[in-house]
Structure formats: C-alpha cells, structure tokens
Amino acid sequence: MRPLLILGLAASLAACAGGSPPQIVTPPPELPQSFFFEPDRTTSEALDALLPIDDAAFLELASGALENAPSIAEALARVDAARAGDRRSGAERLPNIGADGNVTGNRTNPNQFGGNTPFSQFIDTEQVSYGANLTATWDADIFGRLRAQERAALARVDAANASAAAVRTALLAEIAGAVVDWRTLDARIEAISNDAAAASQLAQLARTREEAGIAPGFDRVRAEAAASGSRSRLAALESERVRIIGRLITLTGQSGAEVNAALQQGGPAFNPRRAPASMPSELLANRPDVIAAAAELAASDAELAAAARSRFPRLTLSGVLGLLAFNPGDLFDEDSLIGTLSAGIAAPLLDFGRLEAEIDGAAANKRVAFQAYRGAVYQALGDAEAAYGLIEASDREAALAAQEQRELERAASLANDRYRAGLASFLEVLEARRAADASGERAAAALGRAERARIILWQALGGGNFGASN
After folding, report:
1. Is residue 412 part of a domain?
2. Number of domains in the chain
C-alpha cells in the first residue's frame, strides 16, 4: 500500500499545482425598479385575462394544440432526453455490476518446456476451462467530478422544462393572435359590407335620378365605382382568412376542416382588459426563456467544475467473484471458487495541455451561457416595456378611430339630409359617404390591434397558468 499512497499523493500534488479553475464572474443583471410604461398599480386583472378566454374557438384550438401540436411533442421529447441524461449521470456514481460466463480451450506444445523434460509426457496439451464471474467496479469520486457532472445534468433538465414552457407560451400566444385576427376580419368584413350596402343605395338613387333626367350619368358612375371599391376590399379579405387557417393548421396539428369549424363558432365582441401591473424583477421568475438561460448557466458552471476536477486522481475499486473449473461437473465445487479485489489510482501526469484546453473550453462555454442569460433578461425587459407601451398606444388609437367613425358617420348623415333638402350636391353626399366607409374598417382594425397587444403583453410577462396542466 505504501507505493500506492506515495503515487496518489504525488498525483494529487501535481493536480493542485495546476491551479484552481478559472473564475468566471456572473453578477446578476441590474433591473429598474419599475417599467417606464408602467400601468396603473391599482389594476388587479389576472394575467390570463389578457387572452381571449371567452372565445370558444380559442379554447378549442388551444386545447387541441396542447395535446397534438408537433412543437409541444418535440419539446416534451427534449425533456425526456434531458431526464435520461440526468439518470445516467446519477448512475455513474454507483457501482457498475456485471456478470459473464466463458468456455476457453487451450492447446499447449510440450516442446516449449524442452524436449528432454521428464515431465513433458505428463503435460495435458489440450485443456478446456469453464468459468462464470460476477464483476463490480466503482469510482469513489473523491474530488467530486461525477457529482459536478450530475449537477450539470440536473440543470439541463430544468433548462429543458423551461424551454418546453416557453414553447407552450409561444404556441398559445400565436393561436390567440390568430383567433383575434380572425375576429378582427369578421368585424372588418361587417364594416365593409355595411359600406357596400350604403354605396349601393347611393348608386340606386343616382340611377333613379338619372332616369328621371334630374341628374347626370356621372353621378351614377361615381356611386357605382364606390360600391365596386367596397366589394373589392371585401374580396381581398378572403386571402387573409386563408393565411390564418393555414397558420393554425401548422400550430395545432389539426386539419383545415377542424380549424375552420372551430373558427366558425361565434365569438364575443372585443372588450380589451386593463393591463395588469408587474415588476421587472418578476420577469426573472416568470419568463421561461430567462429560467432556461439561468439553468444553462448553472449547467455550464457545473461542467467547468467537472472539467477542473479531472486534474485530480481517480480512485477506482474493483472486484471479481467467480467460478473456474476444467470440467463442467466441477463448476460448482467449493474448490472452483475464485476472487479478486483491487484498488487503483489513475491521474494525468503529462497530457501536453489536453486537460487545460478542456478547462478553457468549459470556461468559455460558461462565459457564453452568462452572456446568453443577460441577453434573455434584457430581451424580457424590452419585450415587457414594448408591450406595455403598445397597449397604451393601441388603446389611444382605437379610441380615436372609434371617435372618427362616429363623426364621419354623423357627417355622412348630415350631408344626406342637406342633399334631400336641396342644400348640398350629390357629389358632397358621395364624398361624405366615401370618407365614412373607410372609417368603420379602420376602427375595427384598431380595436383588433388593441386586443392583440394584450396577447403580446401576456407572452412578454412569461404567460400565465392557462394550459399549464397539459
């Protein structure tokens, strides 16, 4: 044992002489105390209320997507792979026990002992042995290399779970956005249909006046052109419907018929909820991408520790308990029992920089993971700031668009009354109607953008608990 201890001590001293692993400073990012576009702190709306949870189409499509979407299945498979890696790293710290059996035949040339050896005639030149062994090896992991690898694998599981949550959040946000876009199209189509009906009435009035000889044909042509323009805008919206259905097929893994049937269910009128207040620091605990980046940083730190501890010796204990006989019938006799117990120390002595390069690579990976974490934090901060600001801007736009619609509709009605009283020309009525026609669609589109801004905020704040049980 003395030479073994001396060798182990020398190897340990050589490893210690290599120096400690590189220290990679990872200070937590400094976040502001509040958002610049901070909403009213008295708002107590739940985060999931920002989604169209009252829309049956969204509930049906979201439920189906969480069960069948390829992106969800892929993310869950990555979680399973990470868990398998964690189980493997944990098993590496336990003994490795195996069993084997063998039949070995040997033929010996007696002349190798000398032709004049008197005992050569008694040598059995052909011999068959039968054996069965139970083997065990165990790395004692004195310096914690395997424990560090297990911590890294466990952190990878956390990262995979957080990434799966990020996929779920993004999927729900896209489905909600597509449903809102569909309902916005319904509102725009209704507004344009009303515009087309009003323009057709003006065209019919102009035709009647032309036939009566009290108005020129130019008025009829202008009115019919306005009606045709409304119908053209109406037809153009069908291509947007097609794109929405195609996107939802990709997201949900359902057929076009199933997606269309879900969207055909009536939805409630838009009623944008107030934005809930939040703190920038809450992003660190709620954003799945930030949580995943933090887990990747923890994994890279553990991998750096494991690489650094590869400098130190490894103490391995091994043993063999077996049976050896030269006749099958004697295999289980007491005399056939054999065994071996050994302990070994192995340490790097002269590897020409291989370990140092591995440690430097692990240190670089930790710096990469840290900067990725910082990037995820500031990405989350920027997303949340932009989402709060977008809600404020879109709400103001929707309010002004609705006011514009009311005013232009009122102007069109007054122009029509003045025309009937002989105080205005038909051209004035037509221009007032044309201005009012576009305002309804603009108001519907602005309200849809305000509703979509809520979904962007829901995702920016990390998503709520909707669908988490799936």
Report:
1. yes
2. 2
pLDDT tens digits, residue range 69-110?
Answer: 999 999 999 999 999 999 999 998 999 999 988 888 887 766
Q: Which residue has the tokens 């668009």?
A: 401
| Other beta carbons less than 10 A from residue 435's beta carbon | 16
In the chain, the amino acid numbered 288 is P
Instruction: Tally the C-alpha atoms within 13 A of residue 416's C-alpha that lie toward its C-beta.
Output: 15
DSSP state of 265: S
The residues facing 315 across adjacent strands are 345
Please report, for the domain that includes residue 121, its CATH number: 2.20.200.10
User: What is the residue-wise DSSP string for 139-197?
Assistant: E--TTSHHHHHHHHHHHHHHHHHHHHHHHHHHHHHHHHHHHHHHHHHHHHHHHHHHHHH
Tell me which DSSP letter residue 326 carries. S
> 235 to each of 202, 226, 265, 289, how far by Cα in Å?
21, 15, 21, 41
Same domain, 296 and 419: yes
What pTM was computed for the model? Answer: 0.82
Question: Is residue 31 domain-shared with residue 122, that is, in the same domain?
Answer: no
CA pair distance 329, 352, nearest whole angstrom: 54
**Domain coverage including residue 264:** 17-93+144-312+354-460
For residue 279, give the 3-state DSSP assignment.
coil
Same domain, 287 and 318: no
Distance CA 394, CA 274 (A): 12
- Tokens 């370990």 locate to 355
CATH number of the domain enclosing 54: 1.20.1600.10
Do 320 and 195 have their domain in common?
Answer: no
User: Is a pLDDT exceeding 90 seen at residue 274?
Assistant: no
Does residue 408 or residue 374 have the better pLDDT?
Answer: 374
Among 297, 277, 290, smallest CA distance to 462 is for 290
Q: Where does residue 224 fall: left (phi above 0), alpha (psi -120 to 50 degrees), or beta otherwise?
A: alpha
**Claim to verify: residue 124 and residue 155 sit in the same structural domain:** no
The one-letter amino acid code at 37 reads F
